[in-house]
Amino acid sequence: MSLAIVIMAAGKGTRMKSDLPKVLHKAAGRALIEHVILKSESLKPDTIILIVGHQADQVRNAVRHFPVTCALQEPQQGTGHAVMQAEAALAGFGGEVLILSGDAPLFTEETLRNLISFHRETGAAATVLTADISDPTGYGRIIRKSGTDSVEKIVEEKDASETQKAVPEINSGVYVFDAHTLFSSLKEITTDNAQAEYYLTDVFGVCFRKGLRVAAWKTPNPDEIHGINTPEQLLHAERLLLQS
Hints:
Blueprint: E1 3-9, E2 26-27, E3 30-31, H1 32-42, E4 47-52, H2 56-62, E5 69-72, H3 79-84, E6 96-101, H4 109-122, E7 126-132, E8 141-144, E9 151-155, H5 162-165, E10 169-178, H6 179-186, H7 202-209, E11 214-218, H8 231-243
Parallel strand pairs: 1-4, 1-6, 4-5, 7-11
Antiparallel strand pairs: 2-3, 6-10, 7-10, 8-9
Helix pairs in contact: 6-7
Catalytic activity: N-acetyl-alpha-D-glucosamine 1-phosphate + UTP + H(+) = UDP-N-acetyl-alpha-D-glucosamine + diphosphate; alpha-D-glucosamine 1-phosphate + acetyl-CoA = N-acetyl-alpha-D-glucosamine 1-phosphate + CoA + H(+)
Pfam families: NTP_transf_3 (PF12804)
Organism: Chlorobium luteolum (strain DSM 273 / BCRC 81028 / 2530)
């Protein structure tokens, strides 16, 4: 089965308190985006598409030696809008699409391979990488159909009941989609939300409405899911990368 990887790297990263694009900050001797691209290359995909936006030329220049295709997101209108920019480059592609974030360098090749294998074995339209964490505050909770690998819904913190807030399984932001499901569903999401943005997670609502199966595969190592938004998180990620 063919595989395409889309890496989102268009954001500003304002909490890093730096003019440098967030994905170009270094940890363990490499820019964050380099870590993610190298992990992506290890999966031997058909193509890697990098979504650039904020300081796009600087990011493009930093990855010029890698076999990636850059797609511009301008203006930046949310995560769903970012992935929409990959559609032209994937015209006619009928395989699977793995979606990663350029500021999350801690996933191992093994975890990503296991996620993709699980997605293929279950025949799901979409599969979410999840993790159990001790303090899930702020994360979207994974509500499973009782006793199964299928997701009933993904509930954001602000919308969660007290019972749902007690669920430790959270959405990592890493997904595998059937390409047709992904891009057809993106056409059905809207900006009818507080931020007036296209949210990639709204695609799951489309899948649920259509009765398409959304599966979840849980990594046994919750450290892998952490993205980097602050200098403190960057230092933590560097420690973990140096230990790996």
